[in-house]
Amino acid sequence: MWLQRSLAGPVRTEQQRYVETDLTHLMRKGVVMATAAAQIATDYPIPTYRFKVAVGADEMACNAVSGLELSVETIEYKDGTGHVCRMPGQRQPLTITLRRGVFKGRGQLYQWINSISLNQVEKKDISISLTNDAGNELLVTWNVTDAWPTRLSAPNFDASSNEIAIEEITLTADRLTGEMMADYHCPGVYVEEDASLSLSIASGATAVPVFAHDGALLEESNPIRIDSWLTFENLKKKKTGKDDLIKDKLYRSLKTYFDNGGGYCYVCQTGSLATAVPGFDDVTLIVAAGQTIGSDIVTGLCNDGKSRFAILDGPDTSQVTGPTEPSEVMKAYPGTAHAAVYFPSLNADWAKTETTQGNPKAGYDFHDIPISAAVAGVYCTVDRERGVWKAPANVALRGGVWPKVNVSDDKQGDYNVAPKPLNMIRVFRTGTDPLVWGARTLVGGDDNPDLRWRYVPVRRLFNTAEKDIKRAMAFAVFEPNSQPTWERVRAAIDAYLHSIWQQGGLMGNKPEEAYFVHLGLGLTMTQQDIDEGRMIVKIGMAAVRPAEFIILQFTQDMATA
Fold first, then answer.
1. Which residues share a beta bridge with 84?
2. Would you say residue 459 lies in a domain?
3. Is the pLDDT of residue 344 over 90?
């Protein structure tokens, strides 16, 4: 009897036999199987074949998404005792790939990536959501913040293939978060609190120039947007002969600008600059392009709070190479930190016209290329590749150009220490490209005890920060002037400055050495300020040395109704 029980298994109780009988009966009826199928929605992983993609405010039908991956570098430190310390390092940027079919009339992706190539980064938020099988319920959503395209691949073409045309876009992004959709089973009112920061500060374009011109080539007096060299060639109206074009300063200016990496820009007749430019919020650079721009126009367009910077052409060659004192030569220029002057102008084989047949040296006229235009292209390139905080200096000029005259070390030294410095273009070895050799503003002389605005990148970094922060703070006009609003603003500005510091734009080993953000009652505001609807933010940025802060103050007028 004992052996029989061991082989048959443990003795079952009467209750166990009843349950087994009941389950067998239910399985025959299909009830248990139906219950198990219903539990799949919650107990099984979600299939990946039903999903929705939204890029900004637009839905995009994709057939595949990949690259939703977070990764953090590991820093490893080993000391002499053999102890190894591992710690998290920098978070790596996301690289996401979207694949979708090609449809007639849908060219938004090409417009987006073309704007990137023209020195403009329009960042968008992207959401990828898994849905139920009917597609009417979001189950899980991944949110990608500040994405922009880096590559767009068109489909391959094959006459013998039956494949559908698929294009693929690769994007880089700053942040990835995931969220589960709420699962409501009971009727009633549900309240969800959004813990995300609703205010963020995005960096706008830093190098969008407007070129002054005399109207000889383009008659329009108002600013005209030029997206590329091809766009400009299509706009040429009055002069069609090659020699006539080369003789025009605007033509030579834009050619060297695009040769040196320039993005989209504007052109405007010199007489209309003062009234027309303020209507274009994206313009950040005023480029003389061989024209004489009055000091009053420069200081009117480029002063504190305007977030614009002027690039001016240097004096006549004879003035600089002659015996005249630098202070006398430069006195015609405004003493402002919002402008820089470059010398000398440039020459190139493509900028010459034939005068007589015969001896090439005697038979060609070289037409000066305004140096301000070439330097504007350098500004665009450096901003795009390194950041607005990087000095646009020690950079080679492209396009087969060379300086009209050679500048000696002594001559450059004289103009470096002048009250209004002159930045030089130098060639140090025969056969090499000329270099931009200097990045001082018009208040960057050695005799100026105020060192804050000596260098171009410092001034332009603060211009950029002023513009970005001021634009972001505009949301607060109709917000209550209270602690929650202050905290949202403070946190957003802190995140913005922290990003600049991480990229190397601010000095200091720690964030507190690189910047600070102050906002609050008793800190930046009095009770009277609050009652009168003023929100005052004070920030400090260490752009030159750690813990040596240059202070900016923002005052936002709030609605008091």
1. 78
2. no
3. yes
**Least confident interval from 120-129, 383-392, 459-468, 523-532:** 120-129
Q: Reduced to 3 states, what is the DSSP secondary structure of residue 379? A: helix
CB proximity list for 492: less than 8 A, separation 6 or greater: 197, 199, 200, 201, 472
Structure tokens that stand for 294 in this block: 């009055």
Other Cβ atoms within 10 Å of 335 Cβ, number: 16
| Domain count within the chain | 4
SS3 350: helix
Q: 225 with 304, same domain?
A: yes
pLDDT of residue 184: 54
203 pLDDT more than 80? no
Which range of residues forms the domain containing residue 495?
Answer: 472-557
Pair 35, 68 in one domain = no
Residue count of the chain, please give it. Answer: 561
Give the Cα separation of 346 and 380 in Å (integer): 19
pLDDT digits (tens, 9 = 90+) for 58-85: 788 888 999 888 777 777 777 777 777 7
C-alpha to C-alpha distance for 465 and 460, rounded to whole angstroms: 9
Measure the CA–CA gap between 25 and 48, rounded to whole angstroms: 36
Q: Does residue 341 lie within any of the structural domains?
A: yes
How far is the CA of 287 from the CAs of 306, 319, 379, 390, in angstroms?
16, 22, 11, 19
User: Confidence class of residue 190 from pLDDT cuts 50, 70 and 90?
Assistant: low
Between helix 249-259 and helix 371-385 the angle, nearest 10°, is 20
CATH, residue 106: 2.30.110.20
Task: Work out the number of other CB atoms within 10 angstroms of the CB of residue 255.
Answer: 23
Structure tokens of 498? 């922290």
CA 373 and chain centroid, separation? 22
Measure the CA–CA gap between 289 and 226, rounded to whole angstroms. 15
HSE-CB of 69 using CA atoms within 13 angstroms: 10
In a domain, 190, yes or no: no
Please, which residues bridge with residue 311 across strands? Answer: 287, 340
Q: Are residues 259 and 155 in the same domain?
A: no
- The whole-angstrom separation of Cα 270 and Cα 355 is 30
Query: Which runs of consecutive H residues, i.e. helices, occur in 281-330?
Result: 295-301, 317-321, 326-329
Do residues 427 and 396 touch, judged by C-beta distance below 8 A?
Answer: no
Closest to 336 in 3D by CA, of 388, 371, 367, 299: 299
Residue 381 lies in a domain: yes
